[in-house]
Amino acid sequence: MSGLQGLAQENIWFDKSRYDEAERRFYEGMNGIPQTSQERDSSAILQDIAKARQNIQQSLAGSQNASKSEDQSELVSRLKSLELDNKNLHKVVDDLRATLSKLESRMATLEKSQSPASKTVTFTKAAPVQTPKVEEHNGADDDDDIDLFGSDEEDEEAERIKAERVKEYSQRKAKKPALIAKSSILLDVKPWDDETDMSKLEECVRSIQMDGLLWGASKLVPVGYGIKKLQINCVVEDDKVGTDILEEEITKFEDYVQSVDIAAFNKI
Question: What is the pTM of this model?
């Protein structure tokens, strides 16, 4: 509640006697009764009070009208928003109805298309039922062909055929070459010092010949302080040549070889 509305609803008037006196003098002046300066001042105050009352009433009427107009504008905006929401809801309902009708038509079409397919499935499931009967019948025929009271001559013939087949299998297995397990070994042969003749060292290593040993490529690899080691590759058959034998044979050349290490070992 504003201050003007509170003033308009004020019920207590403490200075009523003064205002009554001023009003009396005002009316006396209007009737021709002479007034003193004090009475003229009071009449001016009374006029101001009357103007103030009029202004208050006008302001209250304007505020009420403004509040009414604001309420009306708010109601109009709410009505417009409700109408817009109602239109949107109608549109959504129409879309749902259209979608539902499409789904119903699709379901009807699928039901019509599935009705002959179900008959086909039934036929295909029923067809294999005859297969076991045929197999049983064939089995009965095989049992009829077997002679449970065969002669000894047939047994001897069967044993002879079996022995021939075993012999042929053994011959084929003997002719088939056996798989030979091989390995690729990379050796590091280290000399005593930088004055060792590396070409002579390699010649000594390659002079080692064994059944199942084949020497491959080689190269000199720097070790440090001017010393180089011989790195040589060889392929060996695992059943015939072992790494221990190789190391033992190479270290026999004591004038050139200090030690032998296996740098890499791979199965072939």
Answer: 0.36
Per-residue pLDDT reduced to its tens digit, 80-105? 888 888 888 888 998 898 999 888 88
Query: Is 60 exceeded by the pLDDT of residue 150?
Result: no
In contact, 191 and 258? CB cutoff 8 Å: yes
Number of H helices, E strands in the chain: 7, 4
Three-class SS of residue 1? Answer: coil
Measured distance CA(1)–CA(21) in Å, rounded:
33
The CA-to-CA distance between both ends of the chain, in Å, stands at: 105
Rounded CA separation 156/3 (Å): 136
- Distance between CA atoms of residues 15 and 184, nearest Å: 129
Count Cβ neighbours within 10 Å for each residue of 198-237 and write b for 16 or more, e otherwise.
Answer: beebbebbeeeeeeebebeebeeeeeeeebbbbbbbbebb
Q: Name all contacts of 134-139 with Cβ < 8 Å and 24+ positions apart.
A: none
Q: Cβ contacts of residue 191 below 8 Å, gap of 6+?
A: 198, 201, 227, 228, 229, 230, 256, 257, 258
Let me know: does 159 contact 167? Beta carbons within 8 Å: no
Which residue blocks in 176-262 are alpha helix, DSSP H? Answer: 198-206, 243-250
Tell me the three state secondary structure of residue 111.
helix
Q: What is the mean pLDDT of residues 15-40?
A: 69
Token digits for 236? 């060996």
Whole-number Å distance between alpha carbons of 262 and 231: 10
